[in-house]
Write a structure and sequence with these properties.
The chain is mostly helical and about 270 residues long. The chain is about 75% helix and about 0% strand. It has a single domain (about 55-255), classed as MFS general substrate transporter like domains (Growth Hormone, Chain: A, Up-down Bundle). The longest helix has about 30 residues, at about 70-100.
Length: about 270
């Protein structure tokens, strides 16, 4: 968000320096966090040696496959990211230049609104009572949040694009905060690192491919058609994941409002 406004108001160089300083500050703060290896602690209590990498990987993948809400959320994320990240990252600049006759400043300003939406969405869900229907709300936000992208190819004024990206940022952030909370509260602590790593790997696995095909795809489809697909694909596959993962039943059986669900969960959902 801040970087986008800095590019629009100053220059890309100022934004790059600002991002570098923020990352340096974050690194300094991370180094002050005490380290705790939950897996080593459990292994030492049981009098066992820490398992090898292959076994740890197998345990993480096995837990994910056995836990239905986790498996179907990751499958949904793979497809969702593949369908919208390419158009968002690669083709959005052409919307700004060809449809809105804008430049890099307008593009950075539009991205800043996405950042504002992310900040607003994060603050809203973080300050509110955790929803009882958390899986359904998370899925709905990620599904409905991409719908405005279907209109990107038809925007005629800059404020329309900013409004779309603002809404997209809000819904995306709400879903991400809920997702992060679920990983912390429903995944066993000694598996959290592996599940989080698997989450990043799986969710972003097709991102490079999506960005690679977005450009060549414009020779076959129009920008409008591509963004319509990007906006509608997530709701379709999100509904499939919600049904196949039995999210509605799972969130009722494992409420996270009054007390955390047991971290010993690992059975097939």
């Amino acid at each position: 968000m801040t970087a986008g406004f800095m590019v629009a108001a100053l220059s890309p160089a100022h934004a790059i320096i600002g991002v570098a300083l923020v990352h340096l500050l974050a690194l300094m703060m991370l180094r002050r966090i005490p380290k705790k290896d939950a897996y080593n602690a459990i292994a030492l209590e049981a009098g066992q040696a820490k398992p090898g990498i292959i076994r740890q990987l197998r345990e993480g993948v096995g837990y994910t496959v056995r836990t239905r809400w986790l498996l179907w959320t990751l499958l949904f994320s793979v497809i969702s990211v593949f369908t919208f990240i390419g158009p968002f990252e690669v083709l959005l600049p052409f919307i700004v230049s060809d449809h809105l006759h804008g430049d890099a400043k307008l593009f950075s300003f539009a991205l800043a609104f996405f950042g504002v939406g992310s900040a607003v969405g994060s603050l809203l869900i973080a300050s509110a009572k955790f929803p009882r229907r958390y899986l359904s709300l998370m899925t709905a936000c990620w599904c409905l949040g991409t719908l405005p992208l279907a209109l990107v190819g038809y925007v005629e004024q800059a404020w329309m694009l900013c409004a779309i990206l603002l809404a997209f940022g809000i819904t995306d952030a709400v879903g991400m905060v809920i997702w992060g909370t679920l990983l912390q509260r429903r995944v066993p602590s000694h598996l959290l690192g592996r599940i989080s790593s698997l989450d990043f790997f799986v969710s972003l696995a097709l991102m490079p491919l999506s960005m690679a095909v977005a450009g060549p795809l414009t020779h076959v489809l129009s920008l409008q058609s591509i963004f319509i697909i990007a906006g509608l694909a997530s709701p379709v596959f999100g509904a499939i994941a919600w049904w196949a993962g039995k999210f509605a039943r799972d969130e009722v059986e494992h409420p996270l409002i009054d007390e955390p669900a047991s971290v010993a969960e690992g059975e097939l959902r």
